[in-house]
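thought: fold this chain, then report.
action: predict
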Amino acid sequence: MIDPLFWLGFSIFLVAASLTAVLVATIPALQELAHASRSAEKLFDTLSRELPPTLQAIRNTSLEITDLTDDVSESVKNAGQVVKQVDQSLDSAKKQAQNVQVSTRSLVIGVKAAWTTFTRQKPARRSPERLPMKDKPELTLPEQRSRGE
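observation:
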């Protein structure tokens, strides 16, 4: 049959051809891998430059938000105290208005009574006419009790 040396050479040729085909197929893949690694390196450089200031800005923003929250809480607390003071002032003003209303009403009634008394015509003095004791009708027992006699 055929010489074994031929089969050895043919096998080596097939292995070399296979390795060449694999190498030809891996070259574009390796080039893309190199390109991806360069892009990743650029991305990591950009992140290393941009990320710390961004994180610092986020920290500063959170501190400012905390300060603003504290200020708003304090302002709300102060507003609550002002509302309480205004409520107390309104209650006090209402009580004073009621006192003024009562005083004014009393003053008006007093002035009316004084005016009525002042403008009333005085009756002429008459001598009291009394019935003699014997002319007075006698009261019955229930009438005496009601008068307290």
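thought: worth noting. Helices lie at 4-119, 141-147.
final: tokens above.
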